[in-house]
Specification:
By secondary structure, the chain is of the alpha+beta class. Helices cover about 25% and strands about 35% of the residues.
C-alpha cells in the first residue's frame, strides 16, 4: 500500500480566559509533546517536523487592504502543525487522538495533503 501524507493542524481554544492553560500546564505539556512526536518519528510516520511561527502576522483582505493579525477576538488559533505519512484517514485520526493539545482543550484538524504533481 502506498503511504499518503496528512496534515495535522493543532488549534487552541480561546473562548474564555478561564479556559486557557496556565504557564505551568503549558510547561508540563512540553514532555507530552516530545514523547508523542518521538513516538510518531520512531514509527517512521513523521513526514515533516512540528512547524511553528511567530504569533504576529498580517492579514490580506479581498480589497487588498493589509492589517495586523491574527485577531485577539477569534475563538481559535493555529498552534502548530505536522505532516504524517500513513496509510489512510483512519490511521491519521488514530495518531491525532493521542495529541497533547486535546488535554489542553484544543483540537486537531486532519486533512489529506495533496501536492501539485498529484
Amino acid at each position: 500500500m502506498i503511504m499518503e501524507e496528512f496534515i495535522l493542524i493543532f488549534r487552541r481554544d480561546f473562548n474564555t480566559k478561564e479556559e486557557q492553560p496556565s504557564p505551568e500546564q503549558l510547561q508540563a505539556s512540553v514532555k507530552l509533546w516530545q514523547d508523542w512526536l518521538g513516538g510518531i518519528g520512531a514509527q517512521n510516520k513523521l513526514a515533516k517536523p512540528l512547524q511553528r511561527w511567530d504569533t504576529a502576522g498580517k492579514i490580506v483582505k479581498s480589497n487588498k487592504s493589509v492589517t495586523d493579525g491574527p485577531y485577539a477576538e477569534i475563538k481559535e488559533s493555529i498552534g502548530g502543525l505536522i505532516f504524517v505519512k500513513v496509510d489512510n484517514y483512519d490511521e491519521a485520526v488514530s495518531i491525532a487522538k493521542d495529541c497533547p493539545i486535546l488535554q489542553l482543550g484544543g483540537n486537531v484538524e486532519i486533512r489529506k495533503a495533496t501536492h501539485a504533481e498529484d
